[in-house]
Structure formats: C-alpha cells, structure tokens
Specification:
5-stranded parallel sheet, 5 strands, globular, 41% helix, alpha/beta, 113 residues, 4 helices
C-alpha cells in the first residue's frame, strides 16, 4: 500500500509515519505543504506512475491549503476514488461537513497532545 502523508508539523508527521509503519505500511511518501503535494500528484498522473492508495491530509498547510489539495484530488477523474483522510485540529461541525462535502473519506480530529 502506498500512502501519501501531507503534514507540515514534524511531530505530527512522526506520529503518523510510526502508526503507518506499525500497521505494516512500508511505502510512505511525505510532503510538507500543499503545493508540493499537488506537484507530486500531477507528476505521477502525467508519467503514469502509481497514485497513492490513500492520502493523509492536514488542512492547515503552508502555501496551498489542505482544502485546495482535497479539491485537486476530487476534481481529477483518476483520483476521485482515492481515499483522502483529513487530519486536523479544527473541530467545528461546519468544517467537518465541508470536508465530507468536498469528498473526504474520513475526518480525524487531532488532539493537542
């Protein structure tokens, strides 16, 4: 399984990567902002490289927001079925519903600890 982790906070990246490795995921690619995520996905689409089976996406990213990355993934026919799991500290019901409306597979709220 190939998982793309899009997370700008080093501590959160380490936790996510450790959790993925614990469940046996060995093909993990990590980027730290939305712009690099879109570039990576575009490059893979254009060169017929395998797309991620799942994306773990922080919403609060530098340069290009997680919302823009989610929109990019869900507007492309080759990525519409890709699982996009949002990881965020934002907890408003409205924010959660917006992410589901945009096509997120799951919304997981990060805790402060």
């Amino acid at each position: 399984m190939f998982v793309l982790v899009i997370e700008d906070t080093a501590h959160d990246r380490a936790i996510v990567e450790d959790a993925l490795e614990t469940i046996g995921v060995t093909d993990i690619k990590t980027v730290i902002d939305g712009g690099h995520a879109i570039d990576l996905l575009s490059e893979r689409l254009n060169s017929n490289q395998p797309l991620p089976d799942a994306v773990l996406l922080d919403l609060n990213l530098p340069l290009v927001s997680g919302h823009e990355v989610l929109r990019f993934c869900k507007k492309n026919t080759h990525m519409k079925g890709m699982k996009v799991i949002v990881l965020s500290r934002l907890s408003s019901e409205n924010e959660i519903q917006v992410c589901y409306y945009m096509g997120a597979t799951k919304y997981i709220q990060k805790t402060s600890d």
